[in-house]
Write a structure and sequence with these properties.
By secondary structure, the protein is mainly alpha-helical. The protein contains seven helices and two strands; from the N terminus they run H-E-E-H-H-H-H-H-H. Helices cover 56% and strands 8% of the residues. The N and C termini lie far apart (107 Å).
Length: 174
Amino acid sequence: MEDENLENTPVEEQTSQKDGGTEEPVTLLDGQQEGESHKDYAERLMDEKAELDDKNKQLYARTKKPKPKAGTPDNSTQPDVKDISKFYSTGGTDEEYKVLETIMKGQDKTFSEAVKDDLFTTFREGEKAKKKASDAQLGASNGSPEAKKVDTSKMTEEEHKAHAQAVIQKEMNG
């Protein structure tokens, strides 16, 4: 097959001089370097062909690998219903579950591997620390339980009556 390719290859005609000064035509094949014999050229072509065949085999093998279809979840990383229910029953949150899904997809791990992953355990510990810190804080103050004293000495008679009414209302309602 290579012989057929060599025969059908365009040629260039060049001339060379012999010792007597007469010119003799030398035929160079397409891609053949000057000074390279036909045998060396054929061997070089065979080596290049072998390299290309190896690359072709690698590319062909790569195309034969099955690829998951877009939009369909990979079953190996899809968590089992039992695992999910156990996760939520032990106090897992939706936010933690989203982190688990990211770890499963990004690192190609199963659900149980992702739960034990250092990244997830660090995230979970951080969330617990935040929750503990927020629970430990005191709530907003509602003010002193004692009523504030109002200086009634500078009030007019009408202001004094209005204040007395408000104090009486407060006592009755509360």
